[in-house]
Design brief:
Blueprint: E1 6-7, H1 17-29, E2 36-41, E3 44-50, E4 60-61, H2 66-80, H3 103-106, H4 110-114, H5 132-137, H6 155-169, H7 173-180, E5 192-193, E6 207-209, H8 211-222, E7 226-227, E8 230-231, H9 235-241, E9 269-270, E10 276-280, E11 284-289, E12 294-295
């Protein structure tokens, strides 16, 4: 298996070595609990580091970075013509349509869910629920606004989308991505995803992979879906997924900083300096700055 990532010195890609040293020194000075980092320009890693006991083969829990993986899988299904982003999600889950699905839920589309703009007030399931999928279509709290109108962070939306991938392909979203792209990029074969109570992969939070795997995956979106001369994900989908599709300033409490208040795409956060990022609980990040061809 070929690894798309290569190594180089910082100066080979126009980065002064002292900048990397300054970063590491600052992390240590502030006593930040950082496990690892990878910095790349193009497909070349110019800096990489691990704090003990972590190492390059350690599988990290990605938490909500997993959502961006689900976005890529949905984009590939759309590219194949298996779905349209404007399809109503209920049409793919007739087993959930018992006649009591709320009218606002019936109108909700795949695109609404990618944008974190469901009609639900927030996450529809509770961790103790036995059937997370059922709660998405029959939430504990009645929907209170039309889908597509408000940003409401909802991990249940991502979960339902990854179940859609699994039902249509017969594979978990991560195995589907491996077959379609990630394996060819050198992604770890033993990377996996935590399961939800029903046995489906938990795409909202469960991906376990290495730091370098995350860099490999980020290349898909940083380079317009094209890596190593092959188009894995359509440029149109990548452009839409990494662009501001909905305002999230209200969700951030009016706060605007490097990570908050710049808008949201398809399971991907917008940032400052025309950047975008995959975010996960506990400080899991993949930050892409296309104007600098930089991945962190």
């Amino acid at each position: 298996m070929k690894d798309i990532l290569g190594y180089c010195r910082p100066e080979d890609v126009g980065v002064h070595p002292s900048w990397v040293e300054d970063y590491v020194n600052e992390v240590n000075r502030r006593r930040k609990v950082q496990h690892s980092f990878v910095m790349a320009r193009g497909t070349r890693v110019f800096a990489e580091g691990y704090w003990k006991p972590f190492h390059r083969d350690w599988l990290h829990r990605m938490y909500s970075v997993s959502k961006s993986f689900v976005s890529a899988a949905i984009g590939m299904l759309a590219d194949e013509g298996q779905i349209s982003l404007d399809d109503r999600i209920i049409t793919y889950f007739p087993d959930q349509d018992d006649g009591n699905v709320h009218p606002l839920t019936r109108e909700m589309t795949i695109r609404d869910m990618l944008m974190m703009a469901t009609c639900n007030r927030g996450q529809s399931y509770n961790i103790g629920d036995a059937d997370w999928l059922a709660t998405f279509f029959h939430p504990h709290h009645e929907p209170d606004h039309p889908a597509g109108t408000e940003f409401r962070y909802d991990t249940a939306a991502t979960y339902t989308l990854d179940v859609l991938v699994e039902r249509l392909t017969g594979k978990t979203f991560l195995e589907y991505l491996k077959d379609k792209a990630l394996r060819e990029l050198g992604f770890s074969e033993n990377a996996w995803c935590v399961e939800a109570p029903e046995g489906y992969a938990w795409g909202g939070s469960g991906v376990e992979c290495t730091t370098r795997d995350l860099a490999r995956f980020a290349l898909l979106f940083a380079h317009g879906g094209r890596v190593g001369g092959k188009q894995y994900l359509s440029e149109d989908y990548v452009r839409a997924a990494t662009s501001k599709q909905i305002d999230n300033l209200r969700d951030s409490g009016g706060k605007v900083d490097a990570c908050a208040g710049h808008g949201y795409g398809y399971q991907i956060w917008r940032g400052e300096q025309n950047s975008f990022a995959f975010h996960g609980m506990g400080g899991q990040f993949a930050i892409c700055v296309p104007d600098k061809d930089f991945i962190f």
